[in-house]
Specification:
single chain, 283 residues, alpha/beta, D-Maltodextrin-Binding Protein, domain 2, two-stranded parallel ribbon, disordered N terminus
Length: 283
């Protein structure tokens, strides 16, 4: 009995050390695999694109398709507005800025690259009977001179005008194309993205707002301006008055990954993808 106990005391620790060695080997293998994954992730190139919330969903779609073909590249697409995107490029926080407005005189040192034509759609709730507005009527709605649907021949009720925030490329283009020298009324509800404007109009039968034509869906209805609807063909032939460019913005001529991506966007494949998504190509 004592001999058996002695044998147990000698043999059992041997198995314990074997298990410990095996555990250490497995831990080393797992650590090596994790380090390898980290190395691969670090080796993956990153391209940052920031700016217009109008351009953002289209840039995201382009980036998604491009990354499928170039898995070595990670494209990070952010919003924030046209002015924020331009500032990000100026400060080196992004390689490509996106803008839905023209550059200001203070930004002329930057390189702007038109990637598509877009229209600014005037949207109402699908149940709203409004089908057409004149440009002066639209201006008067956003100055507050027309503030009731009865002034447009519809059932009496206050008009809930929805606008974008200061610094938005969409607002800047709307002010240039519609408002001219007059200001948007402070009574208009301010929203910080095209999606927010669309969501509010989709849920308020008395609301009226403006968004990128490419973001109009069956939640809202786009009305004609001076009898012209914001259809692709009307934007392409410049018959629709509220038309603007979408831009990529860089500091100097693009290089490296930024140039390769922009070249893809301006290629026939990239332009066709933008047209499928509701924009009008520039090529």
């Amino acid at each position: 009995m004592k001999h058996g106990m002695c044998c147990n005391n000698i043999v059992w620790p041997g198995f314990w050390w074997l298990a410990l060695i095996w555990a250490l080997i497995m831990a080393a293998l797992i650590m090596a695999a994790l380090i390898g994954c980290g190395s691969q992730e670090r080796q993956r190139h990153t391209l940052t694109i920031a700016g217009s919330t109008s351009v953002q969903p289209f840039a995201e779609k382009l980036a998604e398709v491009y990354m499928q073909r170039h898995p070595e590249l990670l494209i990070n697409v952010q919003g924030g507005g046209s002015s924020a995107g331009i500032l990000a490029v100026q400060q080196g926080a992004a390689q490509i800025g996106t803008a839905s407005r023209d550059l200001t005189p203070d930004e002329q040192e930057l390189n702007d690259i038109p990637i598509a034509w877009d229209g600014i759609a005037i949207i109402v709730h699908p149940d709203c009977p409004l089908e057409n507005l004149t440009l002066p009527q639209l201006r008067q709605i956003f100055t507050g001179e027309i503030n009731n649907w009865a002034q447009l021949g519809l059932k009496p009720h206050g008009i809930h005008a929805i606008t974008r925030e200061e610094g938005s490329g969409t607002r800047n283009a709307f002010e240039e194309l519609v408002m001219g020298p007059v200001e948007i009324t402070p009574a208009a509800l301010v929203q910080d993205s095209n999606g927010s404007v669309r969501e509010i109009v989709a849920n308020d039968p008395y609301a009226l707002g403006y968004i990128s034509v490419g973001l109009v869906n069956d939640q809202v209805k786009a009305v004609a301006i001076d009898g012209v609807t914001p259809k692709t063909i009307n934007i392409k032939e410049k018959r629709y008055e509220l038309t603007r460019h979408f831009y990529f913005v860089t500091v100097g001529p693009p290089t490296g990954d930024a140039k390769a991506f922009i070249d893809y966007v301006l290629s026939r494949k990239g332009q066709l993808l933008l047209e499928v998504e509701g924009l009008v190509g520039v090529q």
